[in-house]
Each structure stands twice: as structure tokens, then as C-alpha cells.
Amino acid sequence: MAHEREIKEEQVFLDLALTALDHMRDEARSLRDSAAVANMRGAGDLVERDVVMGTALHRLDQLAIGDQPLFFGRIDYAPDEWGRIDEYHVGRLAVSDEELNPLVIDWRAPVAEAFYRATGVEPLGLARRRHVAIHGHDVTGVEDEYFADANGELALPEDDVRAATEEGLVDGGLALGGPGALLAALGRARTGRMGDIVATIQGEQDRIIRNPLAGVLLVQGGPGTGKTAVALHRAAYLLFTHRATLERQGVLVVGPNPLFLNYIENVLPSLGESGVTLSTISGLVTNVEIRGRDAEPVDELKGDLRMARLLARALRTRQRPLKDDIEIPIGRAIVVLKARYTQETVDRARRRPGNHNQRRSAVGRELANRLANEYYERFVREGVDEVNAVGELADLIRVTAQFKWALERIWPRLSGQELLHDLFGAPALLRAAGQGFVSDEELTLLYRARSATIDEVKWTKADAALIDEARVLLGPLRRPRPVVKPGDNGILDGIDLDAYAGDVRAAALREAQRNAPVLSNELDEAEFVTYGHIVIDEAQDLSPMELRVLKRRDLTDSMTIVGDMGQATTASSSASWNAVLEVLEPRRAPTRVDLTVSYRTPEEVLDFAAPTLRAAAPDLTPPRPVRRAGHSPSVHHVSREEFVVTLADVTRREVDAVAPGRIAVIVSGERVEEIVSILRSKGLDAIDPRDPESKGLGADLIVLSAEGANGLEFDGVVVVEPVQIASRGARGMTSSTARGLRTLYVAMTRPTRRLAIVAVEPLPETLR
To answer: Residues 210-246: pLDDT tens digits?
Structure first.
């Protein structure tokens, strides 16, 4: 056990650092309060106040660490030639005393790298690495690791008693930083929310976190390797290192579903970063409410890259000349819009650059001007009509009901939803768009009966990516035009905003809007926000069309892509990492890194699940575990009559075994409600975490679909009817598929401690 002397030593330092933190908060509050009462005499003062206020509030956000430990480690370098020893405490943010002497260094600072990367083979100049356990404002434990010097000697104190850290570790010589602290962190009960791993980042993880910003970083990692945590800590590190750039350009983190985003939403704020956007793919596509669900063959087809070509062809069929001439009354006469005029105009418009809606104006102008010239030659020159300008005539023509009808037929103004709704609701349009590269059977899958209005359509997750694609082809319906309200006092008159940096300019505009309100439309739904860095989690489950959604939002060719092809579970998921990169088309050569060590998933679970992975993805190697749980997975194969009682008994035993931890019962998607009902009937408080009225993932017992389990972790898991999960996408209910086996592999590798199987039907071959 750690010496009481060392605990007291760290307690004294913690008290000093907490006092300094309080002083830093007081300074930030003072800055905020002085800005709030400052006298404003002009635009320059308004800009300055907004910037100062924003800086103070952001600083207070960073310093608000809640009940998280202020620091968690210390590194002592070997003595230099004069006998001096440099030592640094490593924490979640930098802390200095009143004289600005550094007390705690930020975990992202370059000097902190040694805390995460030092090993016995490469000590990186360290003599000692200390892990400090803190609860509230009290130091509760210390774990020291000593490193040999150039002569191979350890600088151990004479009365040092090394803490035992091997309990629960798998033999094999893995170089772990702070094994005792790591095991303690992994052994804690799950809370239903992912926590940061800033105190226990391991060497291979740290190298990924600190990888350069530019380019695409691809991280392949099996269950328990911490790939999600690494991706989030990388986002925090990049914001710390490139703050000036990324706070302006933005950082986006994309997850597979809202439940997953709820699970990870606290990680970045706990690291002092609150300005990151978290979203699903569907969430990036504005004004589209996902209320429907596609059958798996339809979902797979809609995610196919051919859909981009189908939509482009579908739009071309909406750019069509008139079949017959139409008469348009204007002035004292009638002009005729001839079908051949519209054919010539459409042919020219198709060759013009720009998107569909943008070119509509050119089509209307060309046709109206042609008719106006004809009218002018026939009537104005002969003095029959008093109108004497072709432009005026064209304007008169364009406002007639007949011309508006004709233009809408020739070149309609469309939204992405309208294009998709019309296309999927008309077999003739589908055939015209897909002829030659989409089969008749596939086109039949895409058809769905038209709804009375757009608002009634039950859009699906796959539809969202298609709508986004369509919006790029169509362009904005209209450009926002700011309209100044009467009484504008010209607060920014005479101010050259372009002379200010981006954040100051934005602050000035916000302040001016508060003082002189301006009516302005929001961004058109076809105009989307781009980001300086994008983190894509569970990327193996994204379809090619969904990847195109992200590619459009990539501002600087900077992405972190994490996932595991062994856990690809969606019908439309990409076949390989090479296929993912082909869609994203990075401008620089991508960097690939593999996480090879599983910290969360115990050896017993990984060994049990290994045959399923081999059957589903023979080219992938499961990660190496670092710990044992001391409990082998249990299999309960029972009769149909015994199922309900056995499921309740097994679940109750698992709940009791991991208390106060959390249990997930994982089933095929269509059985979630049934299993919740069964467990409740037996007195167990089971919930569906998707229910907005429930505790979500924070509940002690949840029932979860196997398809929605990616990225989540629980203390214990009960998998129900694995053969039903393994047969996803199969025609025969007992026939396993590669995708079904990958889904089963995901389900079985969610626990950190215990796994149980309950089944009536025969088990998949990989579990027999």
C-alpha cells in the first residue's frame, strides 16, 4: 500500500492547487462583472465588451471541473548534472498561483506526453511516474512506478513498499501505464454515461490522440480498446493545440444514434471543451424528422453509391421542355410560348454551371425576353402599344399566371424533400431515372405511395442522406436577404468590420443585432455548416451515401475516423476501410493506426466471442485483453416453457452480482418491447432506454436492441436468443449471416464484467 507520508505530501499540494484554482475563478468572475457594467459609447466599446465577456465566460466554463479530480498524476525527471529534479503534476487543466507560477500542467501540453508514454524500455527521462487517486478534495491513494536510469538502477526510497498491481491482470508482459490506476478505473461500476480516461490513457492511445491535425487518421479498434474515448480526447487535444483555428472553424463529432450521443455527451465538457458539435448523420440534415424505418433491403439500396447517379438522373427528368405551345395574354395581344423555344432553352440551361434552382432564374429570363422581343417587334415598333422597353415587357410576361405555370412545368423550383417524394411516389419517374443501372426489382423496392403532403412523409434515416444529396444538386430555394427594421440607429456605421478577426467581427455583429434588430432569414436548408475537423465514431456502420454527407461538411480535409469492421452491423455499411476512403477521397495520404489492446472487455468474454468474430470477419484479429473478470460467460439453453422463468432468474442474478452497476439485456430489435414486458411481469424494473420519459442508459436494467448496442458498455450483459441476432438479413431464421454474426459479436462484447446467454432455439455454430 502507498505510504501515508506520500498521501499527505500530495494532499498538501492538492490544497495549494485548489486555492490557486479558486483565485483563477475569482479573476474570471471579476473580469465578467466589470464587462457587464462597463459604459458603452460606441461600436468599438460594444465589440470590446462582447469579446471580454465571452472570454470571461469561456474561462469560467473551463475552470468548472465539478467533482472531477484537479490532477491525477505526477512525473519526476531524473536528476540533471547539477542534481536538480524537474517534477510536474498532470491534471485536466493548467493551474497557476497568484504569481503565475505553474502548479498543474494540462494533460494535453507537450511536457505531459511522458506521463502517458514512458515505459521501462523507453522511460523518456523519467525517474518516477505517480498516479494519484483523489475523491472530492481528499487524496485517497498513490501508486508509484519507478524507471531505471542509464546505469539500469532504480531510485527507490529505502522504505518503499511497492503496491500490488497484478491482481486481475492477464499475463503477457503488456506495457501498461499505471496498471493499478487502470484496473481501479475499469473496475468501477458503469454509470450510464461515458467518463473521460484522461487519468489512465495508455501509450498506444496517446500516440493517436496527439497525431497531427492535417489529413485523415483512421483508427481500427476492437471491443474495449477505447477507440471512442480516444477519439473524444483527440478532439479535446486538437482544440487545445489549435484553438485559434478550430474555435473559428468548428469541430464536429458524429455518432451512430441519439442514444450513443447521450452516452458520450459529458466527456468533452469534463475536459473543459464545450464548443464541440455532437450529431448523428440525420441530425446534420436540417428540417427532416426521422419517423420511419426502412426494411433492410431498402436501407441497403438507399445507401448504395448508385443513388447519387439516380438522383442526378431524376433531377434531369424534371428539366423538361413543353410538349405543346401555350398562349400568354400580354397587353392588347397574345404571345405564343412555342414548345421548340423551351427545348432550346432547356438544352442551354443544362450546359450552364450552377445548381438547378439557381439556373431557374436564367431559364425564366431567357424565355420571357424572347417573348418580349417578339411582342416588341410586332406591336411597339408599329405604335400599337405604349410600352416601349423590352425589359418592361419581359417583367409583365413573367408575372402572368400562364407563364408561371409554364416555368414550373419546364424548370420547377424544388426542395430535396420534394424531389425525393415525387421520385419515390412515381414508378415512371423511377424507371426513367434508374434505367440501365438499377434493376426493376430494386426500383420496386424504392417505390412508396405518395403522401398527401410533404409533412406527412415518414422519412427514414437513409432518406436523410438522399435528401442531403438532392439539396446539393438543387441548391437553395432562395437566398436569405436581411431586412433592416425601421429605426435602425446605424450602430456599425463607419466601422470596417473586415479589419477585425473573425471572432471579434462575429461579436460586433451579435452586439449590433441586440441594439439594432435586423430581420434575417436562417440559412436555407441546402446551405450547410462546414467544420475544421470531423470525428466519425462507429464509422464502419455508415453507408457510402452517409459518408458523402460528411465529405460535404469537411472544410480542411481533416478527419479522425474510428471503428471496427468486425462490428459492422448495418445493411448498408461499407465493405472495408478502403471503401470508406474511396468515398471520402482525402487529398492527403491517410494514416491508419490499429488499437490492439482491449482494456475494458475481460479475457473471458473475448475468448468466448472469438469464434464468432472468426466466422464473421476471418481477416481480423481480436484485441489482446489486459484483465480478467474472474467469471466465465454462462449459457442457459432451456425449453420454451422454461424461458420466461429462466430469463427472469438469470437477469435478477446478474443485477445482484454487479450492483450498483448496470445490466443490459440485448435482444433482436423486434423483441425489445416483449422482453421489457416479461421482465416487468417478474418484478424487475426493466426499461427501454429510448423512452424519453425513462432514465435512459442511467437505469440499472435496460433492454436494448442488438443493432443499437454499438459503442456502449455495461457491467453485465444478458444476450437473448443469439441465433435470432446472428440471422439478421437471412431468409431462413436459423441461418447465420456475416452481418448477423458481427451484430452478435457486438452484443456479446459489451460487458466489462459478466456475460450470460439465454436461448430456446439452437445456438449458432460459433457458440456450441
So the answer is: 999 999 999 999 999 999 999 999 999 999 899 889 9
The three cell numbers of residue 76 are: 519526476
- Spatial CB neighbours of 79, under 8 Å, sequence gap ≥ 6: 85, 127
Query: In sequence order, what are the residues at sequence separation of 6 or more whose Cβ sits closer than 8 angstroms to the Cβ of residue 567?
Result: 222, 223, 538, 540, 541, 710, 742, 745, 746
| pLDDT value of residue 167 | 44
Domain hosting residue 511, numbered range: 483-519
Residues with Cβ within 8 Å of residue 65, at least 6 apart in sequence: 92, 93, 270, 272
- The span from the CA of 629 to the CA of 612, in Å, is 20
Q: Which three cell numbers stand for residue 540?
A: 464502419
Asked whether residue 190 is domain-assigned, the answer is: no
Residues 607 and 746 in one domain: yes
Distances in whole angstroms, Cα of residue 418 to Cα of each of 10, 414, 426, 474: 65, 6, 12, 11
- Residue 226 CB coordination number (10 Å): 23
Distance CA 72, CA 112 (A): 12
Number of folded domains in the chain?
Answer: 5
Distance CA 18, CA 67 (A): 12
Of all residues in the chain, the percent with pLDDT exceeding 70 is 85
Compute, in degrees rounded to 10, the torsion defined by CA atoms 357, 359, 363, 368. Answer: 80
What is the reported pTM? 0.84
Provide the residue type at 247 as one letter.
E
Helical ranges in 399-439 per DSSP H: 401-410, 416-424, 427-434
The rounded distance, in Å, linking the Cα atoms of 529 and 277 is 11
Report if residue 615 sits inside a domain.
yes
Distance CA 143, CA 177 (A): 11
Q: pLDDT of 422-441, one tens digit each?
A: 999 999 999 999 999 999 99
* Residue in 737, 734, 763, 731 with CA at minimum distance from that of residue 615: 737
What grid cell was written down for 690?
429510448
Considering the domain boundaries, does residue 174 fall inside one? no
Residues 454 and 320 in one domain: yes
Count of CA atoms in the C-beta half-sphere (13 A) of 566? 26
128 forms bridges with which residues in the sheet?
76, 146
C-alpha cell at position 25: 475563478
CATH of the domain at 216: 3.40.50.300
Length of the chain equals 768
The residue-averaged pLDDT of 604-618 equals: 94
Comparing 596 with 156, the larger pLDDT belongs to 596
757 and 615 in a common domain? yes
Q: For 12-33, write each residue's pLDDT tens digit.
A: 999 999 998 888 888 888 877 7
